[in-house]
């Protein structure tokens, strides 16, 4: 799970600093992998090799919104639903995060590694 602290200016002109949480479970990753032609990793590789920035941006938007959620007070659940995603996508915090990921390769890699389950993130970083 990734906790991202974002400072942004809201639409009333107020500066805010808030914590946002992002996570993908193994089940969600498996679903994403099986739904992409040739698998998610292969799809990403093809997009990067082709330098298809339009598709890459689309995938990043999907990753950010798909991984966004809120922890339950007792920590047992990570709540994700369409309403939460839509509300987050309408904030300046989302826009700022999206622009950071779209323009900073290092931040994008850190984000992706941060939303992966810890054991998978460890395995990925060992292969780099």
Topology:
Blueprint: E1 2-9, E2 15-22, H1 26-35, H2 40-49, H3 53-67, E3 68-71, E4 78-79, H4 82-89, H5 92-103, H6 105-115, H7 118-127
Antiparallel strand pairs: 1-2, 2-3, 3-4
Helix pairs in contact: 5-6
Q: Return the structural class.
A: alpha+beta
How many separate domains make up the residues?
1
- Spatially, the strands of the biggest sheet line up as 1-2-3-4
* Rg calc: 15 Å
Please give the share of residues in helix.
55-70%
The mean pLDDT is 86
Structure description:
This protein has 128 residues and is an alpha+beta fold. The protein has one domain (2-127). Helix content is 59%, strand content 17%. The protein is built from 7 helices and 4 strands, in the order E-E-H-H-H-E-E-H-H-H-H. The chain has a 4-stranded antiparallel sheet. Helix 5 (92-103) crosses helix 6. The longest helix is centred in the middle third of the chain and has 15 residues, at 53-67. The protein is globular, with a radius of gyration of 15 Å. The mean pLDDT is 86.
């Amino acid at each position: 799970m990734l906790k991202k602290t974002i400072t942004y200016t809201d639409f009333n002109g107020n500066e805010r600093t808030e914590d946002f949480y992002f996570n993908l479970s193994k089940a969600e990753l498996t679903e994403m992998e099986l739904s992409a032609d040739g698998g998610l990793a292969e799809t990403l590789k093809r997009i990067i090799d082709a330098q298809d920035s339009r598709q890459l941006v689309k995938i990043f938007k999907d990753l950010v919104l798909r991984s966004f959620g809120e922890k339950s007070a007792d920590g047992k659940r990570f709540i994700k639903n369409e309403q939460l995603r839509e509300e987050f996508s309408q904030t300046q915090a989302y826009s700022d995060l999206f622009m950071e990921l779209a323009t900073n390769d290092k931040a994008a890699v850190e984000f992706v590694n941060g939303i992966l389950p810890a054991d998978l993130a460890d395995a990925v970083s060992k292969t780099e």
